[in-house]
Amino acid sequence: MWRNAYFVDLFVRLSNKVAIELYKKLGYVIYRQIVDYYTGERDEDAYDMRKSLSRDPEKKSMIPLTHPVHSRELD
After folding, report:
1. pLDDT in tens, 39-72
2. Top-level class of domain 2-73
3. What does the domain layout of the chain look like in residue ranges?
């Protein structure tokens, strides 16, 4: 399963500062901001945080985007 992957990513509410700092300590970077990722009682954007795996030794998959994307643009 992981043999063909270049990175692992996870999504974190922008307000969840504790989790964001924890993931940074574990080697994740903020790859991009996702507008309106969380919807419901409290709408909120999310960070897509990424960490390269051994198949990406140059960590190209961790180069952050310079602009936010909308949740409807996700594939």
Report:
1. 888 889 999 999 999 999 999 999 999 999 998 8
2. alpha beta
3. 2-73
